[in-house]
Amino acid sequence: MLAVAVIGVGVVLAVEVPLVAAGRYGAAVLIAGAVTALVLFEIRRRMAPADVDGETSGLEAERAEATARWMARTESLISWADGTRGDWDHHLRPLLAREFQQSTGQRQGLDPADTAAAGEVFFGDLWRWVDPDGVQRVDRTEPGPGRDVLDRILQRLEQL
User: Fold this and answer.
1) Most buried by CB count within 10 Å: which residue of 42, 58, 102, 127?
2) Are 8 and 35 in contact, with CB atoms under 8 Å apart?
3) Burial class (CB in 10 A: 0-12, 13-18, 19+), 83
């Protein structure tokens, strides 16, 4: 901005000095006014906040980044479904149990029997894959239930 102001003053002086020396005061005032207006317009343009298009692209970039992070996390979670029982117990079971407890208002610490009863009623035979107390400590290398079971659990959670 300082450069614009300095250039503007230089142009005004370069144009006005010869016009004043020639006695053309009216033309000197008009040209000085026009150059000053252009300089002020340029300074205002540079100081103005980004236009709406710039903000929109910033929001779109932020949304695209958030979507990319969500997709990466979802793909990672789905890959755990095809992993071992230990992967399921460590990565998916806590997430699914938390979603179930939040959706139904069940709290694990208050009465685990109530949570287990609600889970068995709602999930049926799938409850063993959601039950937060169903973590298997031995033979964690056996295959997990897979994407099919994860899909059925998620469908039931959607019904809540």
Assistant:
1) 127
2) yes
3) middle
